[in-house]
Design goal:
- The chain is built from five helices and eleven strands; from the N terminus they run αββαααβββββββββα.
- By secondary structure, the protein is of the alpha+beta class.
- The radius of gyration is 37 Å and the shape is elongated.
- A hairpin with a 2-residue loop joins β5 and β6.
Length: 229
């Protein structure tokens, strides 16, 4: 009987230690205010944009990249149309939310994101499904936790701001750019010696001019002597 009570006591202690931890992983949420507006000519109050929020947690821990390194890598893929969607498909990123926003709205979109995924720090990727004219949304990447640099405490209320960049409309083919052929080097052509074909330096050119002038004077002198006869 004493052994049974001891086992039950140990089991109760183990459950008491594990259940709160599991509850923390399952229930912890981070509040995020997403500001996403585009104030450009031609954008009306009815224009909307659909955003997809993907879970990047598994890829984050598998790659071992920091948030800054991940932004650089995905930014490089974003430069080419379709590469980012290929990245999402190849890595089977789970779609967590899909949001439709008004592009002229000044109020933020309130999000509640799980702090953990499979008991690991979560990470998220936000992309847009289309371009807005000649503007495209720069992908947003969020790694949790975000730490306050002054207090070193975790920030539980975050703000994200969308960034748009001008980009050629993928539906409109871009005309081929003409290939400009260089018309010169911007330098004077190099003069060469007629006998050897070697590049003529400044002293060699002076010597040629002196020689030519001497020949001219000699010819003129001989010509005058002949005329005097």
């Amino acid at each position: 009987m004493t052994k049974i009570r001891s086992w039950l006591l140990l089991l109760g202690i183990a459950c008491g230690l594990l259940l709160p931890t599991t509850s923390v992983y399952a229930q912890t949420q981070i509040a995020v205010d997403l500001y996403c507006s585009l104030q450009e000519e031609g954008i009306s109050a009815t224009d909307t944009l659909t955003l997809q929020l993907y879970d990047l947690s598994t890829w984050r821990h598998a790659s071992g990249l920091t948030e800054g390194q991940a932004k650089k890598r995905l930014a490089a893929q974003w430069q080419e149309q379709g590469e980012l969607q290929a990245f999402i498909a190849e890595n089977n990123l789970p779609l967590r939310q899909q949001l439709t926003i008004k592009l002229t709205a000044e109020e933020p979109i309130a999000l509640q994101l799980p702090r953990y995924n499979d008991r690991q720090d979560a990470a998220y990727l936000i992309v847009a499904d289309a371009a807005v004219g000649d503007h495209r949304l720069v992908p947003l990447i969020l790694f949790l936790p975000q730490i306050d640099p002054q207090t070193q405490a975790e920030i539980e209320q975050l703000s994200l701001t969308c960034k748009f960049k001008k980009w050629p409309d993928p539906a409109v083919p871009r005309p081929p750019q003409p290939v400009l052929k260089p018309t010169g080097t911007g330098r004077d052509p190099i003069k060469k010696l007629p006998q050897t074909g070697e590049a003529a330096g400044p002293y060699q050119l002076i010597g040629l001019l002196v020689t030519a002038f001497s020949v001219f004077l000699s010819y003129t002198f001989i010509k005058r002597k002949e005329d005097e006869k």
